[in-house]
Write a structure and sequence with these properties.
This protein is mostly helical. The protein is built from 4 helices and 3 strands.
């Protein structure tokens, strides 16, 4: 009976070793699957994170572009107000000035220099057109800066525009 017991113990030992090998192999496979799942999850999280960061960058670019447009519009509005104020001051000044030839030329020069433009169009009252044209013939440099002289029937005698 001892021989049977030994055979039985040997078979049991062999079965235990095989069972332990199977368990180890199953644990190894399970561990590999868990690691693979973790890597996939991390990769997916990184991909989502990248997408969110890219969306945030695009939104920041849109906001910056909109801010730039708004600031340019505000700047244009400020420039328009300044130009309108200059024109209004010139109109007031012109309405109180007598219409002699030298003061007309001085006023035209000052207006063009204030506007800081290369060429300007001037508007004068119908009664001053011929005297302004005549005065400009004597001042070639000023005449070159005037693109056009137009009649303007308003409550002032001269206006200058770029």
């Amino acid at each position: 009976m001892m021989g049977m017991e030994k055979i039985s113990d040997a078979i049991l030992d062999k079965v235990r070793v095989e069972a332990q090998d199977i368990i180890k192999e199953a644990e190894t496979r399970a561990g590999e699957r868990v690691e693979k799942a973790k890597r996939q999850q991390e990769a997916k999280l990184e991909e989502e994170k990248g997408k969110l960061i890219e969306e945030a960058k695009e939104e920041a670019i849109r906001i910056l572009a909109q801010s730039s447009i708004t600031s340019r519009q505000e700047l244009l509005l400020a420039k328009t107000r300044i130009i309108d104020e200059i024109i209004n001051r010139v109109k007031k000044t012109l309405s109180g000035i007598s219409s002699d030839e030298s003061s007309s030329l001085d006023l035209i020069k000052e207006a063009i220099n204030t506007l800081d433009v290369d060429k300007a169009r001037i508007y004068v009252s119908p009664k001053d057109v011929s005297s302004v044209r005549k005065s400009l013939k004597g001042d070639k440099k000023l005449a070159d800066r005037i693109s056009e002289i137009r009649e303007f029937d308003g409550n002032y005698s001269k206006v200058c525009r770029s």
